[in-house]
Amino acid sequence: MELPMFGVCTVLNGGWKEERVCVPDGFFRNGWNLLLPKGTCSVILSVMSYVIQGLDKAEILDSMKEEEERLCLTPFHFQIPHEFPTDEEKEWYMSLWQREKDVKQILERSGLSYPQTVTQWIHLLVRLGIFLEVRRKSADYFDLVIEPFPYPEEYLHLSGPELNWLYQQRKSFPPFSVQPWMDAK
Which terminal CB of the chain, N or C, has fewer other CB atoms within 10 Å? Predict the structure, then answer.
C-alpha cells in the first residue's frame, strides 16, 4: 500500500476544486495519453468520479467491473478481423492495432503487462503512480495525483528514439490556463 507523499496534491487531500470531473492536465502535458492503452482516459474519469463520491477501493473495483460489462469498457484485444467494410476502416483499425502493439511492447519492456480487464487497468495506473492506494478511516481507497503529475519516463523504459519523440510531443503541447490544483493553495 503506497502512502501519499509530502507535497503531492491529490483528489483526496483537497486538490480537486472543479465542479466537473476531468482528467488532470498533467496526464496530457506529460504525454501519458501517447503511451498508455486507448481508453485509459475513460478509466481515469470513472475512477476519479468514484473517488470524489467517497467510494472505497472495493466499492470502486465493483463499480468498475459493472461498467466494464455495461459499457464494454475493455482493453484492446489485438485480433484482426478477416474483413473490413471499407478500406478506410481497415486503415484506421490497422493504425490502432499498431499503436496498441507499440504500447504493449513498451509496457512489457518496463516489466508491466498490457491490461486485459478494467481491474488490471486500474492496477497498472497504480503501478505507474497515477493512482495511489491510501488507507483512511480504517478502509482502503484509491486516490488520483493532481500535481506534480508523474512523468512516463520515471516508470517506463523508453528507448532513445521514443524518449526524443515524447519530448518533441511535449514541446508541441499547448500551455494550460486552467490549473485546478492552484486553488488548493
Answer: C
Residue type, 143: D
The string of DSSP codes covering 130-147 is: SEEEEEETTEEEEEEEEE
SS3 150: coil
Residues 81 and 110: their CA atoms lie apart, in Å, by: 29
Residue 3 has pLDDT above 70, yes or no: no
Strands (E), the chain: 9-10, 131-136, 139-147
How far is 12 from 81, CA to CA, in rounded Å? 43
Can you give the pTM of this predicted structure?
Answer: 0.83
Interatomic CA distance for residues 164 and 50, integer angstroms = 36
What is the chain's mean pLDDT, rounded?
84
Residues 6 or more apart whose CB falls under 8 angstroms from that of 167 comprise none
Helix-helix angle 57-70:40-53, to 10 degrees = 140
Cβ count near 179 (within 10 Å):
13
Per-residue pLDDT tens over the stretch 124-159: 999 999 999 999 888 999 999 988 999 999 999 999
As given in the structure block, the three cell numbers for residue 144 are 488520483
Classify 10 as helix, strand or coil.
Answer: strand
Residue 76: which residues within 8 A CB-CB, separation 6 or more?
37, 38, 39, 96, 97, 100, 114
